Amino acid sequence: MVGKRRRSSWYRPSDLYPLEDASGEPSGCRAQNNWKTKFIVDLPIPVLGRVFSSLHTNDLLQVCLASRMLYLPATVQLYKKIIVTESHELKKLAISQSRLSWVNYGTLIHSSKLALLLRTVHDSTKLADLIRSIIFVDETVCFDVNSSQSVEVSVQRQLVETLQAILTRVRLNELWCLLDGSKMTLSFHAPSLSRLALSVETFEPSAQSQFNFPRLTHLKIYYQRESACSVAGTVELAKLFSSQKLSTLEFEEMHQSSLESLNRANSMSRDQNQTIWPQFFEVLSSSGTKLTLTRLGLDGFINDGGAHLAKLLSNTVDLSHLISLQLNVKETSHLHHSHDDYSSTLLENLTALTPNLRKLATHPTYDCLFCQHSSLINTLSKNIPDQLSTLFAVVESPTSAYTQAVYDCIGSTQHKLVNLKLLDRSSQVADASAMLQHLMSDDYSWYIRALYYESVLKQSVYKNYFLYDIECISSVINSAGYNHELFSVRTNSVILNDTMVEFVKKNHQRLSRFLIDYFAVEPHCVSPRPVLHLPQLQYLSILGLSIFFTQCNGRRRTQFMLNYGDQYIDLNGLEPS
């Protein structure tokens, strides 16, 4: 991090880096002088910002030390997003897996450096004004004091007090931090904050904490199933934010990895083991509050309450305005009973009430694969036909015929799809094995490690995504179509993974042939080829591979790229017939 430096009178951003051309030269004179050599310091601040957004933290530090003229735009990028972690290995991993990405994911600092950050923002108002986002990666930084590996309560209190002091000095737009409000009184006043992620344990009613977020529009709530504080915290949370003009609301369950935590969860009955977010909407229903949301994300085990929860949500959320919906719920449609064709799931009941839904991410139900299959088919063909522009579908079918039916349904009922990601859990292991056998190489470890690195990066440097399953694919391409230059600028919207890029470098020709064979229509195998006929499709993710559809001389052709690296391969054999 860059501390106190150059606080002299020359530090005037508006003078050194004007947002507009203030040279005063007539346009004709400027046109005649275009042949003159231009230096990087002559670029306007928006262009420099785009350049430095592609540099990593160490590169930005070198720029700050080497160039007086480039100090300001580099410092802006350094302080824009602060990621706090207790893991030194995470920083090494993030650096090692993003050398080829040319994207700045943020500045990682250890939690022990928070006090130094506070000192910096206290001494320099200019640097304090640059901080827009603070993200705590680890739950143990300021959370879960009962954990055997957590920090001492006194240290935790010091961390919280440091964070509160930082909030009084900076104008944050985004904060992601998990705090336990039962251990201390919290006072958060952030008038500029618009994006917030907290744990329900933060809202402990006995602590008399104070929260003031007048401009909050995006809220993400983490919770634990086995935590008794989650119930009380959910009620307080609903009371606090019922008057907010929220546009995005997401709930996510924190999966504890300790053996004691898992044993507690397994010993609980199904009724006790349910998610807590329905209580949030129960409070809204009792108060007569109705939220106008455009994005909604739900996570957790809901037992067999799909129909009831859909009705509850319709009473507390104006579903006619809902554009994005992410359902990561686990549901029991008919426990200990045979399959009932007339049973319905939360997905089916909820999407029937969303006339303007454009983006959907869904995962299968917990018990019955037949219910999961029929729910997805009915949703796409009856509830929201030709509505979606983005779809992330997780399929777990009992037989290959059911999987093929899903592909056929998508190809015949969702003609407006632009971005599509498919994950077939029932065949993903076999498909991956077939791909690696087709490559005739020993690169299996590369493939597995790349998938692991992707999950780690998702939960760390890219943690501040709302409705991640949707946003990680819907922002890849813009409506004007995909091209190499445009995508190289927009790579900060997706996860980048150097291991995957190296994997495709070594196997790109064989991967190309495998994809053509994989999409081939043969009577004895399942093929996702029907989705290739979608007229507006630009992006398809399948088997961890990313396929981009582009226009070339009026004809559609395909380009293949693996996990958003910089490897492009024409796949002429994928042209839909």
Automatic annotation (TrEMBL):
<protein>
    <recommendedName>
        <fullName>F-box domain-containing protein</fullName>
    </recommendedName>
</protein>
<dbReference type="InterPro" id="IPR001810">
    <property type="entry name" value="F-box_dom"/>
</dbReference>
<feature type="domain" description="F-box">
    <location>
        <begin position="37"/>
        <end position="82"/>
    </location>
</feature>
